[in-house]
Design goal:
heterotrimer; A mainly alpha; B mainly alpha; C alpha/beta; A: globular; C: Rossmann fold; about 40% helix
């Protein structure tokens, strides 16, 4: 191990520099507050002081950590620790998964399975499903889709419109929602196929916004900003639920859907199509040289991802009973992207964790609701900066020659 | 005819503002090959800082319009540049050697962070500014409709042209500018030849942020109302302008801005205004499909 | 059918804006031969390659691939279609799928064989794969067997489950060739395969290319700077300089051609290019 370099002067210099920058940044925006109406500025020097001190201390800590080799102390054992944990758990992996499933199924019956808990669990599962769906597009195929919410909206509005205008049941609308979303995926995917990563992202973002604007303005179809209300709850062979049993029924539906999505995603990854998506992500030119048509492969990724979002959207509409364009903003797409990114693209368990954290943390720490998005933007940056080697940090091969298929 | 003329004037003014923001996008893309997704938020921050500066000056009793304008411009440019510099250092520089999507995801995170930072610090409500620069000229009259060219509009266009000329000189004639251009073309080689690429890149971000700050000041003066969300939409339109003009090209950014400004103005005047933003997105998609290098850009040959 | 024309390049021209990279280049590659494309740096060799393999669209000229007695004009075809027609390639800067294992890399080459080329077939295959139907499982097993076979031929069976990006350089080059061969091509285009290899590895590479010609059913078109290997290995050499063909014949003939010598060494006549001394071809 290298010698520890104790260089207090350097640390102080770095901390001072960081503090100076923090001062400049904080002074206008934190130091003064604009009045909401007419009035004068409020001077809040205390905010600036807090910011400067926090940054200085943080920078000092970072400098010290760096020089003490803390990163090394943490990183090396952390990496091998993760490996150790993974291998320690893997023989029990099946049991763990089965255990979690049993737990989730039993949740409504357990003493703490209250309305609140079921509600939260439902929300988490919706995001798990969306995360798994976007993971197909972003994690597997490497296509940064920032307009994913558009497909979610298509699914939701399909059920909303068909149910309220034509009285079709949820179970009939569900596959239709997926179908329309898939068509939307192909339609929106087609023009963007030749675009490189950055451009693809912006254009898909544009598409997402276009869909939202159309939803707001096409009154005859979507009822505009007022949204569609009184969307019926799914029934079970003619039975209608209400109250707690309705919640429980919905919970089981989304649980089933989320399970289906995750199993589907896991299965498709080991098929030729899943491999083709990953190969496309790695090197598109090499794919072309092997006879793969990047256009169809990208379209298939878009279509599959969109279908899953469509299913989730239909459920969302059913659960809420009311949908409006306000639920389908770019921020939703960003949240789903954050789940995929924070969870580690390509990792199913990671997505579950990330979805849980994202939904549950603000609930547990009520005060943080305002800061939620702030922290999560910061988290996105931090994760990217601290793991620059790529999000596919640990990739399970889809098959092995040595020991046969997993 | 008069109505059309007015829309033309408005469109050019709007276009100047978009052009200023677009320059930031195009310069950053030229030098580090990434879309600075947070650039729209930098513009928004510039607008807020301008608002704060105006407020402060008013409270201090400064009456001179010219002085206020100069002070606000300088203050906004300085502080916004600091933000631009910091964003690059914190969110992009560590990712220079990372995989392709990393800087973009980081930029998205940064954009969300900045938007919500301003929301938390300044509140979610809109902020207003009473008109500072008033007055104008009646140019043309027809059927009771008067075409006016306001002083503010003149100021905006003139300032934009002046800045563009100044920065073109900076890039074309000075050593710093040369270093920046070298990095644009071949960063590794420039580094090997002793060019301080980190500084050139930082400079690019700083210039982009400064110009976005000017755009922010102009928007505050022109519309009198801002909120923490203006960066998102303006950012996308300015990016569209940059792509339209040819990403990497400075005059292209201004040209693109002009076209987008005119399109938006004319669309809002003659077609359903609600869809004017859709027009901008649609334009972006069409350009990227049919002429991805833009109007003034250089065609890129894929190196196999 | 050794000896019949496999690939016929006729009047190939490529202009990039004002730059004329390739000017009316014509040559043929026959079935069952190893042909080399050599020339100083900037001569246009990789440009020709990229035109032949569909990564560039030539400004003018024809390229014809003859397969099973039928001739196919490929100059306007996209890269992936040319690959399906039977031309495989490797890249100067190795383009493996770094995070995927060696085995997976080869399986990608079997993608079209597994899924078919139409959309319907693709969907059918995907659905069948999802449910693990026996038809798909057998197809996957066959594909894996072909992959395993090629891994054995290049000596990488033990590394089958390692991410391709972690393999040593020489192994990566061999893997890339194995991957190209898994598409069962009739023509293999290799771009500077010996770059960065030591003497032993170069010998192995040359033997591999010979085996490909003799036993594995493909002709080879090769760009290479390693003169000794080229002269030793090739049945037929085409020399480019500044975008023109300046010589075209057997290795022996080309080695003594004064025009070729001048292009490479810029020196007086009487000097022959090396035979087996290990001298690497220098750029002009």
């Amino acid at each position: 191990m290298d010698a520890i370099a104790v260089r207090p002067l350097l640390w102080i210099k770095e901390a001072a520099l960081a503090a100076a920058v923090a001062f400049v940044l904080a002074l206008p925006l934190a130091g003064f507050r604009l009045p909401d109406g007419v009035g004068s500025l409020t001077f809040r020097p205390q905010w600036v002081i807090v910011a400067v001190i926090a940054v200085a201390l943080g920078r000092l800590a970072l400098a010290m950590a760096r020089d003490f080799g803390v990163a090394r102390w943490i990183a090396a054992p952390a990496a091998s620790g993760m490996e150790a944990v993974r291998s320690a758990f893997s023989p029990y992996r099946t049991w763990l998964i089965v255990g979690s499933i049993v737990f989730m199924v039993a949740l409504p019956m357990l003493p703490f399975g209250t309305r609140r808990v079921l509600d939260l669990a439902t929300l988490v599962l919706i995001y798990v499903m969306l995360g798994a769906g976007l993971n197909v597009v972003v994690g597997l195929a490497g296509l940064l889709d920032l307009g994913y919410v558009a497909f979610y909206a298509v699914g939701a509005y399909t059920y909303g419109i068909l149910a309220t205008q034509f009285g079709l049941s949820f179970w009939v609308c569900l596959p239709l929602a997926g179908l329309f979303a898939a068509l939307a995926g192909i339609a929106l995917g087609f023009p963007v196929l030749r675009l490189r990563g950055d451009y693809l992202a912006i254009v898909t973002l544009g598409f997402g916004e276009m869909v939202r604007i159309v939803l707001i303005n096409w009154h005859s179809l979507t009822n505009g900003s007022n949204g569609i209300a009184r969307i019926p709850t799914p029934g079970f062979f003619g039975m209608q639920f209400s109250g707690v049993s309705r919640l429980t029924f919905l919970y089981f539906i989304i649980f089933g859907m989320a399970m289906f999505t995750m199993m589907f995603a896991a299965r498709i990854r080991v098929t030729a199509l899943g491999r083709a998506w990953e190969a496309l992500r790695e090197d598109e030119i090499a794919c072309r040289s092997l006879g793969l048509n990047p256009t169809t492969i990208k379209l298939s990724a878009f279509a599959v991802g969109a279908t899953l979002a469509g299913f989730a959207g239909a459920f969302f509409a059913a659960r809420q009973g009311f949908i409006s364009p306000a639920s389908f903003t770019f921020m939703e797409s960003a949240i789903i992207l954050a789940i995929v990114v924070l969870g580690g693209m390509g990792s199913q368990t990671g997505i579950v964790f990330a979805a849980a954290v994202l939904v549950l943390l603000p609930e547990l720490f009520r005060d943080f609701t305002e800061l939620r998005l702030l922290l999560f933007g910061a988290a996105m940056v931090l994760i990217m900066v601290s793991r620059p080697q790529g999000l596919v940090a640990h990739r399970e091969p889809s098959l092995r020659l040595g020991k046969g298929k997993p | 005819m008069a109505y059309f003329l007015q829309q033309l004037i408005n469109g050019i003014t709007l276009g100047a503002i978009y052009g200023l923001i677009a320059i930031g996008y195009t310069m950053v893309y030229g030098i580090v090959g990434m879309i600075n997704f947070a650039h729209g938020e930098i513009y928004m921050i510039g607008a807020f800082i301008a608002l704060i500066a105006f407020g402060l000056l008013a409270q201090l009793g400064v009456a001179s319009v010219a002085l206020s304008l100069v002070v606000v411009l300088v203050v906004s440019m300085i502080f916004t540049s600091a933000y631009g510099w910091t964003v690059e250092r914190v969110a992009y520089r560590p990712l220079r050697r990372s995989f392709r999507l990393a800087p973009l995801i980081s930029a998205i995170g940064m954009s969300i962070f900045l938007q919500n930072l301003v929301q938390v610090l300044q509140g979610a409500r809109v902020k207003t500014l009473p008109p500072v620069i008033t007055g104008g000229f009646r140019i043309y009259e027809e059927n009771g409709f008067t075409v006016t060219l306001s002083t503010l509009q003149i100021v905006i266009v003139v300032a934009t042209l002046a800045l563009m000329a100044a920065f073109a000189l900076l890039i074309g004639r000075t050593a710093l500018g040369r270093a920046q251009r070298a990095c644009e073309q071949d960063r590794l080689m420039a580094e090997l030849l002793g060019v301080n690429t980190d500084r050139a890149i930082s400079l690019t971000f700083v210039i982009g942020a400064a110009l976005a700050a000017v755009a922010g000041v102009m928007v505050v003066l022109y519309y009198g109302v801002v909120d923490f969300f203006i960066g998102f939409l303006a950012g996308i339109k300015a990016f569209t302008a940059a792509v339209l003009g040819g990403i990497g090209s400075l005059p292209g950014a201004m040209l693109g801005g002009l076209i987008i400004g005119l399109t938006e103005s004319l669309w809002a005047a003659y077609l359903p205004a609600a869809y004017k933003d859709v027009a901008a997105f649609a334009l972006l998609i069409i350009i990227l499909i049919f002429r991805p290098t833009g109007l003034l850009g250089r065609p890129e040959v894929e190196k196999v | 059918m050794t000896g019949t024309s496999l690939l016929a390049v006729d009047g190939l021209t490529m202009r990039f804006g004002g730059l004329q990279a390739v000017d009316r280049v014509s040559f043929e590659v026959a079935c069952g031969e190893i042909a080399a494309l050599i020339g100083p740096n900037g001569a246009g060799k990789t440009t020709v390659f990229n035109c032949v393999t569909g990564f560039y669209r030539p400004t003018a000229g024809q390229i014809e691939l003859t397969r099973d007695g039928r001739a196919l004009a490929i100059e306007r075809l996209a890269g992936h279609l040319i690959a399906r027609a039977g031309i495989a390639r490797t890249f100067q800067n190795i383009r493996l799928f770094p995070h995927m294992t060696a085995l997976e890399n080869l399986l990608i080459a079997r993608h079209n064989a597994l899924t078919g080329t139409s959309v319907i077939a693709g969907i059918a295959h995907a659905v069948s794969g999802l449910f693990g139907l026996p038809l798909t499982r057998r197809a996957e097993a066959d594909a894996t067997e072909i992959a395993r076979l090629w891994l054995a031929r290049v000596g990488l069976v033990d590394d089958a489950d390692r991410p391709a990006g972690t393999l040593p350089y020489g192994a990566q080059r061999r893997l890339e060739i194995a991957r190209a061969m898994c598409t069962e091509p009739v023509l293999l285009c290799v771009d500077e395969p010996a770059a960065g290899l030591n003497a032993g590895e170069t010998r192995e590479l040359a033997q591999l290319l010979r085996n490909i010609r003799d036993h594995y059913g493909a002709s080879v078109l090769l760009i290479e700077h390693h003169m000794a290997m080229v002269m030793d290995l090739s049945d037929h050499v085409v020399v480019l300089d500044h975008g023109h063909v300046i010589a075209d014949g057997s290795a022996e003939a080309v080695r003594h051609d004064p025009k070729v010598i001048r292009a490479y060494l810029g020196e007086e006549e009487g000097v022959a290019l090396p035979q087996g001394s290990g001298l690497h071809g220098e750029s002009a």
